[in-house]
């Protein structure tokens, strides 16, 4: 940021309304008190009653009893989608691009979902409702015809916004399960790198906030890919290709990770980084212990909450979507626990405020 | 005094309701709308309350009703409204209602499913028909190409296709028109250009059977060769959500027959569809007749259960305990309602209402009617009055429109506003019935209809005083000025653009009886003399006039406000405030502003010679500089003026410490007295207490410091310690009720300092603030004059034949600007300033506005959606 950088001066002209709106939405995110009440519910009907007194209001009022978790999930997601679409429809210039970037990750997920589903001989009509509404695009449904990635790219995705991310994974190989995971991660890697670079190019507070969040996202992916690759046929070279080359691990940490053979060696890599050491410390699957995944989520939530501390930047939009998503996961977790009468784990949601 | 003068007297009451009678009683109270229940279980979650299941049942019923309402809307059937307001049904009738709604919902759903299936069938047949029609067309075209062999016009692929038509496979289907371009692209890329697509738009819009939306679609037909391609094409078609239809390969004539076949099927289906539609309509009309009543019933039940959830349940005695605020005057009505409710429910034990004494501040309840509502509204917008303090609303009814009119004074504009207000008031019932006009702006204007009426009326009055009607003057009584008495000669009259009229010259101004020659000896009897309209110094004259009258009006209103403060002090028996605050305030304001007003009036009434008129401004400045008034600098008004003015200034100076110190001093003295009175009793135990309570010494130290800071000097330590000890004592004994008066002394002192500074500065600044009356009135009259001379005058000054035509054209321009700028914009600005004068200048003299509004539990407001339960 230069001395005479006045990017923030004009921020409110284009984005002031939406930023204000998003901060308003953020205030509606459920707080600890709300979760405490929710975990005390005995049935989904109780949950509905309590959610009525939050900003969710009457979002379940028109659902006939008995409620199911799936319905709650749908409605929660619908609310997020409505809010996001409103933001996207009113966004201008750079913010529109930024919001589109957020959508791309959902598109990637949808494509992978459809391809995997087709490989497992599922019907398209069965798969479509499972796709995230934010990631729906025109040619999406046709990805089922592709037999290889080259096919996929040439026939379908070439004029979709995802095309640029595809350049690294075009091959004539037939699609199979391992392949798909590789494609997903390659796509995600390209996507994250592109998003990171774009935010960096924005400069100012946006770069400051978003690079940290996306850098963490990249590092988390690297860790998770490494840990999940143990015991699979993925070679170390191939694995190294999947690491997003952004964030704190890049480049030294990634080189070390590429050499890792077991969980302990991954942990050793994390030791070098203060914030990641904390996450690896004291994780486990036992009762009272948190899984590494949850710890990552918690860290992500903290970062997203902190992003609201800065003004005149696009990070709030990203953070809002992520926080809402986490909230949906939390509510669904609690609802599942209630519905399955599995109360002992009901407290393992990730509180936001 | 009328009930609006102070808010209703309220009392806190406890109700003991038998559990079987509770529902009926609350229902009656809801109809009555006079009690507001307090939540006795604030710490209980919404879903842990007793009647949560009943609330849930109501929610479910409401959901079903909403579903039916949506269906009604879909078929555009209006809801029948006969204005019925059924009472809340008894709990046992609820089951009946539930069953009824359940059945209706199921019926409706079944009809919908049937209809959907039929519609889907219908859509498929229609699409099929379209495809057959278009396919014939495609094939015919192809035949034509075949015969002419015109290769240049079509894709290089087609000749082969046509040649090999026998072996070519094809699929035909229908696709959403918006998806067609991307469909085409994907098809081309995925099949590497080896397919041939023809498409044609379906002219008529089709209805989506599920959503009921109208969609535009296109027919397409794809030709290809080989099974592999067929698979691919079919997958793409599936991906794009197209509907494919089997079209047999046959000559066009065969297709035509098929089409006829389909058409007849469509006709049959249409018949069935119409029948279902009729049946659905029949069911829905029945629903439309009752749905409003059902909604009211369900909402009432829900509101009752919500209220019951606020109650305390006493299991042992099988009764519910409720706590509520209610107007003391209406206790009888409430008891009647309870008795009636108990009777209806057939309970043997009466419900009991018992008044409770409390320290809590009761809510403020001002009974309003259609007329006073809007005036009370502008007061409440500033702040709900503290319980039982003087409510400015009744005075606002007159002062608000009046101050507005001072700024908006124009007879014509006032008349227009009056007419608008009258129309709203006369057609009130009609507009009230039209609830559907849900525009916030309209609600605001309509809500203030009586205010608009009054503002219009008063504007006509002040307009008459200013003698302005669209900036022109009336000459009703004949001007008091006589030009001929000046005896100008012809040359002067011919050459001069303006001439001086000297009122001292005999006969020119008839206002002076001694100048009387051929006039009646009086000035223009009422309002402005119309001659000022053509005078060049009109503005100078009016400015001085309006400025002074603004100050006099302002003083009058502030004085009135202070008088109301006296009413408050008397009512709350606050003698200390009367002597130590109110009296010095009164003297202060009289000396500073009152004296100015007196000399303004004095000058108006007695001064005749314009040449030697004194300057009040310089006179006032000199008064504070203790400069003796003299004729030389034009500050002399009356003999003895110097003595009076010195006295006035001294009074001002004297009042300041009176306001500042008297009240805190008395409080300080009283506290000391009280402490001394109890001192001997406690003195022997003070040492032991100090040992028992480890915080004691520290407490004492702290309070001592406070006293030091506040009081400036300390008399001696002993009484303070004892007083503090008294506090500790009383706190430990009766911790339930800490004395509300026992504010920290430093706090009292600071408040008093702020209060004094505020009041004394405000006397000057608020007086200056009233000058906005003059400024706005000047702006208004100038604007309307500009509009007249720049617009209307153009048309009127032209000679016929052009004149009338131009006048006609210009009139509309004039009319639009008059309404848009002078009535609406100027009206809003005058409204805003009148509002400020009331909120700040008037109410700051007496109004605290620290109460909270009484929100009674009332079905009426719940059903109208004013209260969100």
Instruction: Report, as a whole number of angstroms, the end-to-end distance of chain A.
Output: 31 Å
The helix/strand series of chain A, from N terminus to C terminus, equals: HHHHHHHHHHHHHHH
Query: Uncertain segments of chain A of ≥5 residues (pLDDT<50)?
Result: none
Count of helix runs of chain B: 26
* Oligomeric state of this protein: heterodimer
Helix content of chain B: 55-70%
Report on the biggest sheet of chain A. Answer: none
Over all CA atoms, what is the radius of gyration of chain A?
21 Å
Q: Roughly what fraction of the amino acids of chain B lie in strands? A: 5-15%
Q: List how many beta strands of chain B DSSP finds.
A: 11
Q: Return the structural class of chain A.
A: mainly alpha
What's the pLDDT, averaged over the residues of chain B?
Answer: 82
Distance between the termini of chain B: 36 Å
What gross morphology of chain B would you assign?
flat
Instruction: Give the C-alpha Rg of chain B.
Output: 43 Å
Characterize the biggest β-sheet of chain B.
5 strands, antiparallel
Strand tally of chain A is 0
- pLDDT < 50 stretches of chain B: 148-165, 682-738
Compute the average pLDDT of chain A.
85
């Amino acid at each position: 940021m230069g001395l005479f950088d006045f990017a923030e001066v004009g921020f409110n002209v284009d984005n002031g309304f939406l930023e204000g709106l998003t901060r308003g939405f953020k205030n509606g995110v459920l707080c600890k008190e709300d979760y405490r009440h929710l975990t005390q519910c005995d049935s989904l009907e109780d949950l509905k009653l309590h959610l009525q007194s939050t900003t969710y209001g009457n979002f379940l009022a028109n659902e006939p009893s008995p409620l199911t978790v799936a319905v709650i999930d749908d409605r929660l997601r619908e609310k997020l989608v409505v809010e996001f679409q409103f933001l996207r429809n009113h966004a201008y210039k750079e913010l529109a691009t930024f919001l589109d970037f957020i959508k791309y990750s959902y598109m990637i997920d949808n494509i992978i979902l459809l391809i995997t589903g087709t490989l497992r001989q599922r019907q398209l009509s069965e798969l479509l409702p499972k796709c995230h509404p934010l990631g729906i695009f025109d040619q999406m449904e046709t990805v089922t015809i592709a037999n290889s990635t080259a096919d996929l790219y040439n026939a379908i995705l070439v004029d979709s916004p995802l095309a640029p991310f595809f350049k690294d994974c075009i091959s004539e190989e037939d699609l199979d399960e391992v392949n798909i995971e590789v494609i997903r991660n390659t796509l995600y890697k390209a996507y994250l790198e592109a998003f990171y670079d774009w935010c960096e190019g924005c400069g100012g507070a946006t770069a400051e906030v978003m690079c940290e969040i996306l850098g963490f996202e990249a590092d988390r992916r690297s860790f998770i890919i490494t840990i999940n690759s143990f015991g699979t046929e993925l070679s170390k070279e191939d694995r190294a290709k999947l690491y997003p080359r952004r964030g704190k691990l890049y480049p030294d940490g990634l080189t070390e990770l590429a050499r890792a053979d077991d969980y302990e060696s991954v942990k050793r890599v994390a030791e070098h980084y203060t914030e990641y050491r904390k996450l690896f410390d004291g994780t486990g699957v036992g009762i009272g212990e948190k899984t590494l995944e949850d710890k990552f989520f918690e860290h992500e939530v903290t970062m997203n909450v902190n992003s609201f501390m800065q003004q005149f930047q696009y990070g709030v939009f990203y953070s809002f979507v992520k926080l809402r998503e986490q909230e949906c996961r939390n509510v669904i977790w609690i609802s599942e626990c209630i519905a399955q009468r599995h109360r002992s784990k009901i407290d393992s949601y990730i509180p936001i405020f | 005094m009328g009930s609006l003068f102070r808010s209703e007297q309220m009392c806190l009451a406890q109700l003991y309701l038998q559990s079987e009678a509770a529902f009926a009683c609350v229902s009656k109270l809801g109809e009555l709308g006079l009690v507001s229940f307090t939540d006795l279980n604030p710490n209980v979650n919404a879903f842990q309350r007793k009647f949560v299941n009943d609330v849930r049942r109501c929610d479910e019923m409401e959901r079903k009703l909403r579903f039916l309402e949506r269906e009604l809307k879909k078929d555009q059937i209006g809801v029948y409204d006969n204005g019925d307001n059924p009472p809340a049904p008894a709990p046992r009738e609820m089951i009946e209602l539930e069953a009824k709604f359940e059945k209706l919902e199921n019926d409706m759903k079944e009809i919908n499913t049937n209809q959907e299936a039929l519609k889907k069938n219908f859509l498929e047949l229609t699409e099929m028909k379209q495809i057959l029609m278009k396919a014939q067309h495609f094939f015919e075209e192809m035949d034509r190409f075949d015969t002419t062999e015109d290769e240049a016009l079509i894709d290089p692929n087609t000749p082969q296709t046509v040649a090999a038509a026998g072996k070519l496979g094809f699929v035909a289907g229908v696709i959403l028109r918006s998806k067609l371009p991307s469909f085409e692209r994907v098809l081309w890329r995925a099949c590497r250009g080896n397919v041939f697509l023809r498409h044609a738009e379906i002219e008529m819009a089709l209805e989506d059977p599920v959503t009921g939306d109208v969609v535009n679609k296109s027919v397409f037909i794809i030709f290809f060769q080989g099974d592999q391609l067929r698979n691919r094409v079919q997958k793409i078609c599936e991906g794009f959500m197209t509907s494919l239809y089997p079209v047999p390969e046959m000559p066009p004539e065969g297709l035509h027959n098929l089409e006829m076949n389909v058409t007849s099927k469509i006709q049959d289906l249409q018949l069935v569809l119409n029948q279902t539609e009729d049946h659905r309509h029949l069911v829905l009309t029945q629903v439309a007749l009752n749905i409003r009543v059902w909604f009211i019933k369900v909402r009432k039940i829900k509101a009752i259960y919500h209220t019951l959830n606020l109650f305390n349940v006493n299991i042992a005695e099988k009764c519910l305990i409720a706590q509520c605020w209610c107007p003391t005057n209406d206790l009888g009505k409430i008891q009647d309602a309870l008795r009636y409710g108990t009777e209806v429910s057939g309970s043997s034990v009466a419900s009991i209402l018992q008044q409770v004494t409390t320290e809590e501040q009761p809510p403020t309840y001002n009974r309003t009617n259609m007329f006073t509502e809007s005036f009370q509204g502008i007061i409440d917008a500033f702040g709900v009055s503290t319980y039982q303090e003087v409510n400015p609303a009744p005075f606002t009814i007159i002062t608000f429109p009046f101050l507005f009119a001072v700024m908006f004074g124009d007879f014509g504009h006032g008349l227009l506003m009056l007419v608008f207000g009258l129309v709203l008031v006369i057609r009130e019932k009609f507009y009230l019935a039209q609830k559907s006009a849900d525009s916030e702006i309209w609600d605001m204007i309509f809500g203030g209809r009586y205010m608009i009426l009054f503002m219009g009326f008063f504007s006509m009055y002040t307009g008459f005083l200013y003698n302005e009607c669209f900036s022109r003057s009336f000459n009703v009584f004949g001007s008091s000025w006589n030009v001929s008495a000046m005896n100008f000669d012809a040359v002067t009259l011919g050459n001069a653009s303006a001439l001086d009229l000297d009122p001292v010259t005999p006969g020119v101004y008839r206002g002076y009886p001694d100048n009387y020659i051929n006039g009646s000896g009086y000035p223009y009897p009422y309002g402005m003399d119309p001659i000022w309209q053509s005078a060049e110094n009109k503005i100078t004259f009016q400015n001085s006039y309006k400025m002074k009258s603004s100050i006099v009006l302002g003083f009058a209103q502030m004085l009135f406000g202070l008088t109301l403060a006296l009413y408050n002090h008397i009512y709350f028996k606050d003698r200390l405030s009367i002597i130590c605050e109110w009296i010095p305030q009164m003297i202060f304001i009289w000396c500073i502003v009152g004296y100015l007003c007196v000399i303004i009036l004095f000058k108006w009434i007695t001064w005749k010679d314009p040449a030697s008129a004194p300057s009040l401004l310089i006179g006032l400045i000199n008064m504070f500089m203790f400069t003796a008034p003299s004729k030389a600098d034009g500050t002399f008004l009356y003999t003895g003026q110097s003595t009076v003015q010195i006295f006035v200034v001294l009074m001002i100076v004297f009042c300041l410490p009176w306001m500042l110190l008297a009240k805190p001093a008395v409080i300080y003295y009283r506290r000391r007295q009280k402490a001394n009175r109890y001192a001997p009793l406690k003195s022997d135990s003070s040492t032991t207490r100090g040992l028992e309570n480890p915080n004691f010494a520290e407490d004492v130290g702290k309070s001592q410091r406070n006293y030091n800071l506040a009081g400036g000097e300390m008399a001696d330590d002993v009484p303070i310690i004892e007083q503090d000890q008294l506090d500790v004592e009383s706190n430990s004994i009766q911790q339930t009720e800490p004395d509300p008066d026992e504010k920290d002394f430093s706090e009292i002192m600071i408040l008093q300092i702020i209060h004094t500074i505020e009041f004394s500065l405000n006397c000057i600044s608020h007086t200056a603030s009233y000058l906005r009356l003059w400024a706005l009135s000047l702006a208004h009259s100038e604007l309307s004059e500009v509009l007249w001379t720049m617009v209307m005058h153009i048309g009127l000054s032209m000679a016929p034949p052009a004149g009338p035509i131009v006048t006609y054209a210009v009139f509309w321009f004039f009319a639009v600007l008059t309404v848009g700028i002078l009535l609406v914009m100027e009206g809003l600005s005058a409204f805003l300033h009148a509002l400020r004068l009331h909120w700040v200048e008037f109410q700051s003299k007496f109004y605290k506005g620290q109460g909270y509004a009484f929100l009674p539990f009332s079905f009426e407001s719940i059903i109208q959606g004013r209260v969100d339960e």
